[in-house]
Each structure stands twice: as structure tokens, then as C-alpha cells.
Amino acid sequence: MSDVLSLTRAARLIGVTRAELQKKIQRGEMISHDGTVTVGNLLACYPDAQLEDDAETRRIAQIKERAFGKRVLERSLPEPEVLAARIIELSKTLAHSEAQIKRFNALLGKLWDKLNETEAKLDAEAHATVEELRQWITLEVEMATEPGFINPLAVKDAVLSVMTAQVTVLPSKHDFMVEGHDTLLEAAMRAGIPLDYGCSGGNCGKCKAKVVSGKVRKTRLHDFVISEVEKSQGYILLCSNTAVSDVVIEAPVANSVLDMPFQQIKAHVKTTGHINDDMLLLHLQTPRTQRLRFLAGQSVTLRVGQSYSAELPIASCPC
Length: 319
Ligand code: FES
Description:
By secondary structure, the chain is α+β, with helices and mostly antiparallel strands. The chain folds into 4 domains: about 5-80, no CATH class; about 80-150; about 165-255, Roll (Ubiquitin-like (UB roll)); about 270-315, no CATH class. Helix content is about 40%, strand content about 20%. The chain has helices at about 5-15, 20-25, 40-45, 55-65, 70-75, 80-120, 125-145, 150-165, 185-190, 230; strands at about 5, 35-40, 165-170, 175-180, 210-215, 215-220, 235, 240-245, 245-250, 270-275, 280-285, 300-305, 310-315. The strands form 5 sheets. The chain has a 5-stranded mixed beta sheet. The mean pLDDT is about 85.
């Protein structure tokens, strides 16, 4: 687990919203640098963070309890291949850490022998200094190997890294989490990140982006052709790939309404709800391949047949 966490990841680990962390930073209760926070600062603000009884663990338990109903399964669990790939990645990290610990233990043993050898050749005064050093090393090693010396966030981070992956978008530095069967594009949309896209079905190529680091996996076949040269440079379609590990991608993000294309979309009324005599709640559904792209503050003209037309403001993404 890295010592520096993005706010999105930190919020997931602690079980609070990203907005709550941002408020703490604004109030000066937590130190943050460039949209990140250190594990130490996070634990200083949330000293009771525990693996047990946290929102994520409860959520996983809920999934089990619901006997993996299809919708819950799709929304919450990655596809088996992605899950297997993440577990393999985690196993590699574990194997690497174990090998490193063995090397450090061997090094410690050699250091100990060297200390004993050196001590035998020293006078009484230097002997006392070496003894002091030996006691200090013994104490430090004991503290570092105490059974309770486990960072609860590191354990939780390992669990999360199997269930989800973090995506950082460059150059905007937006970040979001990918979970369940979501593609990178779907996850970005859920997080309200306005990445460029068109059909969301692998045909138009508008969601093409470059993977800078991390592993992705194609989850859908696509008709749009990415040249071999582009593939070798790491280009993928966000609507047809998911994240296996934490990834960094290069992709344009809409920063102003000027980046938003004019869109005409035929939607159907999914549900209606009565609010009062003058107001009706309409739940409109756009085709899956033609979702409405917008930034908060834009407006949409709603037309119903030839008879009704109204310009309505759009608030922020409800994701
Ligand atoms: S949005 Fe059209 S190919 Fe991905």
C-alpha cells in the first residue's frame, strides 16, 4: 500500500464521502497535498479506522447475504477473469514482499554477526557504545515485528484492490474507482467525470485513451479499429476495457461547455411521479449508446411531440 493516497481512495478506506474529507481539508483539520493525503495524516484524523465493521466490509457481507442476485452481482463484483487477474496481481505483490522480508531478515542476521565480531576487537569504552546500539536495534526489531503492528488501512486497501481499481486521469488529475462489471467509461460516468465519448459501444472511437501505467483488460469486442502502432503505444477504448490494477490514463476531460458537443437525443419516459398540481417528476431514459453529456449549469431543451417544449437547467451529475 502506498503511503500517499488519493482523496477518492482515502474516502473509500475510511468509509466516508470524498466531500467530507474535502471539508476537513478546507477547515485545516487534515493536511493534503495536490489532491492526496498521507496514511499518517489520514489515521491522525480517523484514529479509530478499523477493518471490522466498516462500510466496505458490510457491503461485501450484504452481497453474500443476497445470494448474489444478478443485478447486485453485476454492480458489485468484477467479472471472474478480472477478479482472477487482480488476485494474481495481489499474490505477486505478496510474494515480492515476502521475498523482501526474507532478504531483510538475512541482512539483519549478518549485521548482528558483524556487530559481535567488531565488538570483540574493541576497548571497554567502545564496547559500551556497541552495547547501546545493540539494545536500540533489539527494541526497534521487537516493535516492528509485534503481532499487533498491522496498519488497518493496509489490510482494507488489499481487500479493496481486489474489489475495485483506481483510475487517475491525466492531465486533469481526476480520479475515480472502477467496480463491478463497469468499463472504464461507465465508471467515469458514474463518478461524474466528463470524459469524451460518443456511442459507448465500441464503434466511434471517441473514447480512445492512452494507458500510461497499470493493467487493463478488454471486456467487450469493438468494431472500431485501433492500429497496431497505437496499441503498442497503449491506446485502448475506454468503453470496451476495464481496470485490472490501479491505472493512469491520458484522456481529455471536458472543462467548459465549449468542450461539450450539441446533442439531440430521443429519450423515453421511464417513470412519472406527482409532486404537486403544477409539477411532475419525469424520469427519462436515454438509449444506452447515447447518454447525455453535460456539465453542471448547462441547460437542456425538452420537447414532447410538437406541442410542448421547455428549457430546463441541469444540476450536477446525480451519480
Ligand atoms: S464511445 Fe464510441 S467507441 Fe467508445
